[in-house]
Amino acid sequence: MRRWWSIIGTLLLVGAVSATLSGCGAVRLAYNNAPNLAYWWLDGYFDFDSAQSLRIRNDLDDVLVWHRKDELPLIAAQLANLKTRALQNATTEQTCKIYTDAQTRFSAGLERMVPTVAAVAPTLQEAQLQHIARAFEKSNATWREKYLDGTPAERNTRRAKQAIERAESFYGSLSAEQVAMVRAQVSASLYDPATHLREKQRRHQDALQVLTQLRSSQPTQAQAQVAIVELLQRTLSPPDPALRQYLAQVTQQGCTAMTALHNSMSPKQRAYLLATLQEYEDDVRQLSRSQ
Q1: What pTM value is reported for the model?
Q2: I need a labelling partner for 170 at 20 to 30 A (CA). Which of 47, 86, 190, 262 fits?
Q3: How far apart are CA 79 and CA 273, in angstroms?
Q4: pLDDT digits over 9-32, tens only?
Q5: What is the pLDDT of residues 181-217, one digit of tens each?
Q6: Per-residue model confidence (pLDDT) at position 274
């Protein structure tokens, strides 16, 4: 459920920065500083040298210019469309479309960085690849602690708490009945954290193999871009058909759960959602006009 309450955040900013934000002033501040935030996040994994840092920083600045010009108007339109439905009941299909639209915007940002990654990847040194491997291990350990530690009941309690907090950031306080609904939805979810950890580890191994191969083969820019695009495709859509089917089922269940919760909201809660969406739309439109 927590990921569903991150949808609007994903619409606002490409990447993980958006999911951590609350409050429109924070959105504007983070967006305008997105290249620096993204650089330091990436450097935590890659430990860039001077030449790599210069290329990454310049390209991130260019991506922000593109995103402000081309993507923000699309995001503003999506938010405006959400506003028209905020006071109405929703269908599962409408909810899933919100998710797929957010994924499309997210993917567009990733694809914009393909030439940059393809240029930098062959220049990575062995020490940097080892640094990436350690960063992946640390990320997996943190994820395991957050989502796999404890009994199933304890894990469900944590997930429900996160989902409730995210819902309340959009709708205001939930009623006791709505809190019980979220807890029941989490308990009934097909979501399996062990499966997601295995997929996370697969993506990490895949990325390391591709980066290692690009370093050793010294490909042309075109060849490197093909390798990075294929890696991105495997990251967004796992090669294993059974896993893709499982993810589709979890997504569909999430759409159904979020729809049911939205449809349970009172007029006051829906008005709160409308006001929240309006604030976000105002932020996005102001950002799109900034230089």
Answers
A1: 0.85
A2: 190
A3: 11
A4: 333 333 333 333 334 456 777 788
A5: 999 999 999 999 999 999 999 999 999 999 999 999 9
A6: 95
Secondary structure string (H, E, C) spanning the chain: CHHHHHHHHHHHCCCCCHHHCCCHHHHHHHHHCHHHHHHHHHHHHHCCCHHHHHHHHHHHHHHHHHHHHHHHHHHHHHHHHHHHHCCCCCCHHHHHHHHHHHHHHHHHHHHHCHHHHHHHHHHCCHHHHHHHHHHHHHHHHHHHHHHCCCCHHHHHHHHHHHHHHHHHHHHCCCCHHHHHHHHHHHHHCCCCHHHHHHHHHHHHHHHHHHHHHHHHHCCCHHHHHHHHHHHHHHHHCCCCHHHHHHHHHHHHHHHHHHHHHHHCCCHHHHHHHHHHHHHHHHHHHHHHHCC
Backbone dihedral angles phi then psi of residue 3, each to the nearest 5 degrees: -65, -30
When computed from its CA atoms, the radius of gyration of the chain, rounded to whole angstroms, is 20
One-letter amino acid at 161 equals: K
Quick one: pLDDT at residue 179?
97
Residue ranges for the chain with pLDDT beneath 70:
1-26, 291
Report the C-alpha gap between 136 and 134 in whole angstroms.
5
With 0-12 / 13-18 / 19 or more C-beta atoms within 10 angstroms meaning exposed / middle / buried, residue 131 is middle
Chain position carrying tokens 């905020």:
86
Length of the chain: 291
CA distances from 244 to 47, 176, 230 (A): 33, 35, 17
Label residues 82-95 b or e (16+ Cβ within 10 Å = b).
Answer: bbebbeeebebebb
Question: Residue 179 corresponds to which tokens in the numbers above?
Answer: 């809190």
Structure-token pair, residue 133 = 């491997």
Give residue 25's pLDDT.
58
Tell me how far apart the alpha carbons of residues 157 and 159 are, in angstroms, rounded to a whole number: 6
